[in-house]
Structure formats: structure tokens, C-alpha cells
């Protein structure tokens, strides 16, 4: 039997399930997806360790996809690049399957993801960009507003936010 609830990094094999949830979640709101299927596959091949999926009875119900970034603020290039020497985790997308929304799963998944990032020695902070209406959600998750984001997608403008991750805490705690 499958575990009732499981959190794990995503693999390229999860790309279609990820895209189906993302497409439904974003097209109804903004008319576009943060990541298209080929971009999802791209990030899940390059940096699967920066993704996290929530599975219930083997079915993906929510996910986060991230990549590394090496600058203080996000730029248009951050939408498609993974900078392996970066210390900022750029959270590209968090989405919850429609039948599991309004149950707190997005907040729980973000909390789990941030806890996971604390164990990665290279991660110093998490960055994301979101529309104005999502700022309160991310503030409740511990993110602070950096200001308007340089990145635009069509006519959409975004707010850039960050959360300190404090990498190396795990290593300091467990060193002689």
C-alpha cells in the first residue's frame, strides 16, 4: 500500500502531473503558467533537489519548484536559468491541486520546503516573485517584501520577496 502522505523531491517523471496542476491553478487567474512543460522538465533534470512534492496515496497534490540564483534580486534571466554556484533559491512556483485548496496545504508545503532548505549548506535565502494579492500569504510564511520586481510577464507586474534560510546551521550544529 502507498503511504497516506509523503513529501519528496520531484523527478522528471513527475513533470506532466506538475504541469497539469500548475496549468489549472494559474491559467484561470493570470492566463499563463509560470513554467511550461519543457521548463518544468528542465528544472527537474538540472536541480530536482530544489523541488518538493506532496503526495497523498501516491497522487501529487501540491508542489514547489526552485532553482539557484546568484544575484541579490531576480531578473528576467532568473525565469529560465539555474546558477549552480548561487546561494539564493528562486522559488518559481508553488501550486496546489484544485480539490486540495483552502486546506492549508500551500502553507504547510512552504514551511516544509523552507525547513528542507535550511539543511542545504549552500542556501542562504529564498526569493520569489508574486502578484500583489499573494503578498499576505507569503508574509504569513515568513517572507518580507523587497519591492517591485524587475521581471514582468506580458502586462503582469510582480512584487519580489525573500526569506532568510541561514544555510550551514545544520553543519554548525553537528560539527565538533
UniProtKB/TrEMBL annotation:
Query: Where would I find the N-acetyltransferase domain in this sequence?
Result: 5-166
Q: Which reaction does it catalyse?
A: a 2-arylethylamine + acetyl-CoA = an N-acetyl-2-arylethylamine + CoA + H(+)
Top enzyme category? transferase
- The answer to keyword Transferase applying to this record is yes
Record's GO cellular component, any one?
A: cytoplasm
Under the heading Gene3D superfamilies, the entry gives: 3.40.630.30
Subcellular location, principal: cytoplasm
Q: Where in the cell is it found?
A: Cytoplasm
Stored InterPro entries: Acyl_CoA_acyltransferase (IPR016181), GNAT_dom (IPR000182), SNAT-like (IPR051635)
Q: List UniProt keywords, sorted A-Z.
A: Acyltransferase, Biological rhythms, Cytoplasm, Melatonin biosynthesis, Phosphoprotein, Transferase
UniProt-listed SUPFAM superfamilies: Acyl-CoA N-acyltransferases (Nat)
Name the family. Belongs to the acetyltransferase family. AANAT subfamily.
- Supply the name of the protein: Serotonin N-acetyltransferase
> Source species, please?
Podiceps cristatus
Amino acid at each position: 500500500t502507498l503511504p497516506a502522505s509523503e513529501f519528496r523531491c520531484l523527478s522528471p517523471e513527475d513533470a506532466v502531473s506538475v504541469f497539469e496542476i500548475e496549468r489549472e491553478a494559474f491559467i484561470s487567474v493570470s492566463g499563463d503558467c509560470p513554467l511550461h512543460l519543457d521548463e518544468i522538465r528542465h528544472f527537474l533534470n538540472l536541480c530536482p533537489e530544489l523541488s518538493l512534492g506532496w503526495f497523498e496515496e501516491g497522487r501529487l497534490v501540491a508542489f514547489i519548484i526552485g532553482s539557484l540564483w546568484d544575484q541579490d534580486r531576480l531578473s528576467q534571466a532568473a525565469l529560465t536559468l539555474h546558477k549552480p554556484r548561487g546561494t539564493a533559491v528562486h522559488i518559481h512556483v508553488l501550486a496546489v491541486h484544485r480539490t486540495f485548496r483552502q486546506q492549508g496545504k500551500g502553507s504547510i508545503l512552504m514551511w516544509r520546503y523552507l525547513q528542507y532548505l535550511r539543511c542545504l549548506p549552500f542556501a542562504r535565502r529564498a526569493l520569489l516573485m508574486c502578484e500583489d494579492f499573494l503578498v499576505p500569504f507569503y508574509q504569513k510564511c515568513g517572507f518580507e517584501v523587497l519591492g517591485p520586481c524587475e521581471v514582468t510577464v506580458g502586462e503582469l507586474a510582480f512584487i519580489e520577496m525573500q526569506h532568510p534560510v541561514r544555510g550551514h546551521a545544520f553543519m554548525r550544529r553537528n560539527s565538533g
